[in-house]
Amino acid sequence: MTETVLVTGGTGYVGGWAIVALLERGYDVRTTVRSLAKGDAVREAVGDPGERLTFAAADLLNDDGWDAAMAGVDYVLHVASPLGDESSKDPDALIVPAREGALRVLRAATNAGVRRVVMTSAANAASPASYAEESVTDETLWTIDDPSLPAYRRSKTLAEKAAWDFMASYDGPTELTTVLPGAVFGPILTANNVGTTQIIQRMLTGKMPGAPKIGLEVVDVRDLVDLHIRAMLAPEAAGERFLGTGEFVWMREIAQALKAGLGAQAGSVPTRELPNFVVRLASITDPSLKAITVSLGRRNRHTTAKAERVLGWKQRPAAQTVVECAESLIEHGVVAG
């Protein structure tokens, strides 16, 4: 019999690519959406596979629908992020939905006897507390929860911790594995959801006056999904964390890769690096910049040696990922060619 995988958040950027990859590998896929009315858009984005893709109405902020969503499921890829209020000054607006959403999925999965849940966390959940620190860290490190840290980073750390604490008190067949990605770029499936590729979109449209000195560990969305599936299947992945970061590149290097790969189509991409003090001054009036000021000039990196050794995982070069991301944005009409 064909195995069934539940993917949380089928309308999401990573969720959509997870559906595509699982269908290509011969699985039946069920995906959660907040409203079944969104099903047609998901089918169109992933290339309508007929009855092999089904939908369940379930919201990470509500208990309703989760038991039905898990019925008959073999594996779960919990890649969805709940819609917290990122503009709120209250960090709990992000932290509580992320933590409670993870626990909701795990409760339903363990009740249904699912074999394994693979949950998406973030590399920021395995990073040093000090932003001034330059180091290479692995999965053994847990980010220390500190109210001074950005709420998003705290939400990912606390949600993953809550998941592991839940499993520590659980005595049953369901297993948990977590994947901790870096900055997720790559092609999009639909113009209706550009996900984290908004950064590349902003660079292509000239909405950034320059490149802040921010370093990103770029991972291709297709490689990230491949890591999730490897973590889902490998017996030795049970109960483990796996970093899924990629090559470390500065924003200026991303801009240069876009220029080299796209030529005239990258005419609006800024390649000059903005001095740190300029970004800090701009953040006074631009709230969207405040979250990144703490990362200016920081070169903390993560090693993916464990995923490579245990799961045989490989990543493509960052330059290839960002160029193919940009080409996809242009092809889907998100950015004018």
Automatic annotation (TrEMBL):
Residues 5-238 form the NAD-dependent epimerase/dehydratase domain. Keywords: Oxidoreductase. The keyword NAD does not apply. It holds the Pfam family Epimerase. GO terms for molecular function: oxidoreductase activity, acting on the CH-OH group of donors, NAD or NADP as acceptor. InterPro entries: Epimerase_deHydtase (IPR001509), NAD(P)-bd_dom_sf (IPR036291), NAD(P)_dehydrat-like (IPR050425). PANTHER family: NAD DEPENDENT EPIMERASE/DEHYDRATASE, STEROL-4-ALPHA-CARBOXYLATE 3-DEHYDROGENASE, DECARBOXYLATING. Belongs to the NAD(P)-dependent epimerase/dehydratase family. Dihydroflavonol-4-reductase subfamily. This is Nucleoside-diphosphate-sugar epimerase.
